[in-house]
Amino acid sequence: MLAISKLPVLLILPFYLTHLLKVFATNLTANAIVPISGTNMGSVQLPNGDTRLYYQDRNNGSIIEVVISNAFTIGQYEASLVLAPSSEVRSNSPVAVSLVADGDTFLQVHTFFFSKENILSEYYWETGIGIQGGADCSTCVTSKGFVGVADSQMLYAMASSATSPPTLRVGFVSAGSPDTISEAVNTGSGWSVASLTS
């Protein structure tokens, strides 16, 4: 009689365990850690709350863009892609990012780094156009050939939409003025560079 009373439990147990394991596996997938192995990174938050992270991949040296729907506490990983191939990026390059927005609309995201030849380089995303960058990009700072000091980690970027067109500023240590900071500036008519003076 004991064996007969346990029969319904034994028949239901596999279905219960299957359901339990499925729920457990779903939770693991939904909360899985996104593997990222990088060196230097920069980021921007878009007006709608979306986040863009840019980092140099420790394994292959390329600059990777990571798309996240908001802050990590409420958002989630959406996608990643290679923004700049490793052939164009110096090992252990700093990464700086700036955002050009018009109110609630973002227009451009600029990502700056140094090439293997220590050339200040850029890739950017523009609404309606997509990704621009590389050696053939005539609107990128890369085309100007501004050389940074080898192995320098100093790099910043900022953008102001207060002017029309927007102003982009990128600070770095120039090989031509290694004892101070220089700034590449684009006010809409192309890039120029100047060193910090008193």
Summarize the structure.
15% of the residues lie in helices and 40% in strands. The chain is built from one helix and twelve strands. The protein has one helix at 2-30, and strands spanning 38-45, 51-57, 63-68, 77-84, 96-102, 105-114, 120-126, 130-133, 155-160, 167-172, 182-186, 191-195.
Overview of this structure, please?
- With 198 residues, the protein is mostly beta strands.
- It has 2 domains: 1-32; 33-195, Neuraminidase (6 Propeller).
- The protein is 15% helix and 40% strand.
- The strands form 3 sheets. It has a 4-stranded antiparallel sheet with strand order 1-2-3-4, with no helix packed on it. The protein has a 4-stranded antiparallel sheet with strand order 5-6-7-8, with no helix packed on it.
- It starts with a helix and ends with a strand.
What is the CATH-assigned architecture of the largest domain? Answer: 6 Propeller
Low-confidence parts, pLDDT < 50 over ≥5 residues? Answer: 7-29
Structural class estimated from helices and strands: mainly beta
CA-based gyration radius: 24 Å
Q: How would you name the CATH homologous superfamily of the largest domain?
A: Fucose-specific lectin
- Helix content, binned percent: 10-25%
The average pLDDT value, as a whole number, equals 86
